[in-house]
Amino acid sequence: MNIWDPTHECMSRDELEQLQLERLQATINRVHKNVTHYRKKFTQMGIIPEDICSLADLTKLPLTTKEDLNLNYPYGMFAVPLREVVRIHSSSGTTSKPIVVGYTKNDIRLWSNLVARFMTAAGVTHDDLVQIAFHYGLFTGAFGVHYGAETIGASVIPMGTGNTEKQIMIMQDYKSTALVCTPSYALSLAYRMEKLGVNSKSLSLKFGLFGGEPWSEAMRSEIEQRLSLSATDNYGLSEVIGPGIAGECSHKNGMHIYEDAFIPEIINPDTGMVLPQGSEGELVLTTLSKEAFPMIRYRTRDITSLDYSPCPCGRTSARMKRVARRSDDMLIIKGVNVYPSQIEEAVFATALGETPYQIVVERADAMDSMEVIIEITDKIFDLELKKQRSFLEQVKKRINSVAGINVSAKLVEVKSLPRKDGKISRVLDKRKI
Ligand code: DLL
């Protein structure tokens, strides 16, 4: 049976709810005691931990947003002293400051076991060779999956990103059986293989575990067919833990949420009110077992719906639908989260003031690209050509240092960007996913 932790993955709803309530109460006590932000918020709302007597009481608690994390940068939301933290990761903030998350030893153990769940559900066992082509660094994807795969006892090939031809060579020579990366990078690998005349059927790949960015059923079919493997969708976000929040089983009909570790809710993104079961809305998550960085009702900004109907695989948890949209303007470019506000800050800081601009995002051969088009203002016009070029270089450098992506940038004539009612739409996302 492809279930890593049958005790927790196949619990009856009654047992699960009992466990969730115990863990929720413990978490609320801990954050009330150790995190000033939560204590202040609870006090403002007149809540004490003893008020949480049932799971329904969760809605009494305040929602937590990325802005709250920004305001408490870097360690303000940690619930343990730093000496108990064994790992730090980070993710994009809406400004030039990132979000910082921490893990205790127990958190790493928890995280590894959650990742082991979705890897096992996809079919991975200790006999597999898992090639991880996520970026190793502050991003939670690579290390999260790495530890999960080792927990299963699989052999990990920590490739990291880039160097597509070497990835293919290693796949051929080391006989990788599972590939873990973003879905767009999987397609990129497939296109390169075709160019190199490598037949995917000659490889040993059986499973592709993808996530970190939105993709579609059409992309899944294309990847499965071009790479000759079975592809599953896996969801997570750094603020809550990283990968290992939800993952598909072999039935591929929604991602099982690990509800003994996270309570999911769906809210109306405009009002913040919880929506009736089955509705589409913004996913809100509360962590139940994390020590260093517990999250209470965190607004993920991801739009989805939950399905509580039984799954033939035997897991009893709710399944979330593919995430195709967000309730904010965050973009994911080659797997990297980017906020238009970060780009704007970089452009205005370099131009020493506001200047009309537009961000254009495209996808060609599965590769995302971003171009920042800036209108020539009087200030820029007065610069000689060489200086204009160096201005563009500075914009690109600044964006890279803040958002961690390479963009192209160009200047266009005054008033040449398309305007509607006098306004330029800041982002033109031309990708078809
Ligand atoms: O992307 C964690 C992760 C890594 C998940 C690897 C799965 C695999 P962040 O960098 O914090 O963390 O980005 C989180 O990415 O809020 C979603 O908008 C998006 N996202 C993640 N997984 C999926 C998915 C990781 N399967 C943000 N489908 C989230 C659609 C996804 N969007």
Topology of this protein?
Layout: H1 6-9, H2 13-34, H3 36-44, H4 66-71, E1 87-91, E2 99-103, H5 105-122, E3 129-132, H6 140-152, E4 155-157, H7 164-175, E5 178-181, H8 183-196, E6 207-211, H9 217-227, E7 230-237, E8 242-248, E9 255-257, E10 262-267, E11 281-287, E12 298-304, E13 306-307, E14 319-320, E15 325-326, E16 331-333, E17 336-338, H10 340-351, E18 357-364, E19 367-375, H11 378-381, H12 385-403, E20 408-412, E21 427-429
Bound molecules: 5'-O-[hydroxy(phenylacetyl)phosphoryl]adenosine (DLL).
Structural class by SSE content: alpha/beta
- Give the rounded overall mean pLDDT: 95
Please work out how many helical segments DSSP would assign. Answer: 12
Bound molecules: 5'-O-[hydroxy(phenylacetyl)phosphoryl]adenosine
Sequence of strands across the biggest β-sheet: 4-3-5-6-7-8-9-14-13
Biggest beta-sheet profile: 9 strands, mixed
Distance between the termini: 33 Å
Shape: globular
What's the quick description here?
33% of the residues lie in helices and 23% in strands. The protein is built from 12 helices and 21 strands. Helix 6 links the parallel strand 3 (129-132) and strand 4.
Task: Describe this structure as you would to a colleague.
Helix content is 33%, strand content 23%. The relative contact order is 0.12. The protein has 433 residues and is an alpha/beta fold. Helix 7 crosses helix 8 and helix 10 (340-351) runs antiparallel to helix 12 (385-403). The strands form 5 sheets. A 9-stranded mixed sheet has the order 4-3-5-6-7-8-9-14-13, sandwiched between helices. A 4-stranded antiparallel sheet has the order 10-11-12-15. 5'-O-[hydroxy(phenylacetyl)phosphoryl]adenosine binds at residues 91, 139-141, 211-214, 233-238, 242-243, 300, 302, 323, 326, 332, 337.
